[in-house]
Amino acid sequence: MILRRDITIPIILLILVAAAWYFNVVGLRQDLQRRNAEVSMLRAELERLRKEESGARPRIALYFIKQEPDDFVLVPEVREIDGVADARRAMEELIKGPGAGSSLLPVLPPNTNVRDARVQDFVATVDLGGEVRTMNVGSRLELLAVSAIVNTLTKLPDVEAVRILVEGAPQETLAGHVDISGVLRRNDAAVKLQE
Q1: Which is more confident, 12 or 168?
Q2: Nearest Cα to 126, choosing from 156, 83, 99?
Q3: Where do the structural domains in the chain lie, given as residue ranges?
Q4: How high does pLDDT run on average in the chain?
Q5: What tens digit of pLDDT does each residue of 40-52 get?
Q6: Which residues pair with 169 in a beta bridge?
Q7: Higher-pLDDT residue of 137, 169
Q8: What's the pTM?
Q9: Closest by CA position to 141, among listed 98, 105, 192, 93
């Protein structure tokens, strides 16, 4: 009986210490998420104030397809816009396609629509609808379309990664080739800077 009591007290203490550690970690994780949201809001506000102070119109870097003799690549097109440069506006501009007179090719069908676009914890979630559901391209052009979405959005100050939804739901691919089921990061390997 004495031996059992000698073991019971350390086990109870160990359980209490483990529980205290667990709740501390959970609390720290929640605090980190809250602080990340605050930082995201502050970054957006800072960007807005900078634009307001300078009097300049916001600029967005959009990525479109350029056909080269033996391949397709993405190239950036910087566009001045009216209003706020946020995830929704960037996607709307991307769907509009390249500027008039450009030799660049659009990355998304013209009747694609942005159902929702939001940023939380440095991840932009875009929900697309319309013609995007019927994209019929090969693997290279699908990779460039996905990379154009991700690269355009990650040029925004509060976005580090992107999640793509179609009609409100996660999808495995846009056109059958490129996995979009998770959080996506920039693909600078697909980008060619203009000479």
Answers
A1: 168
A2: 156
A3: 1-54, 59-190
A4: 87
A5: 777 777 777 766 6
A6: 166
A7: 169
A8: 0.72
A9: 105
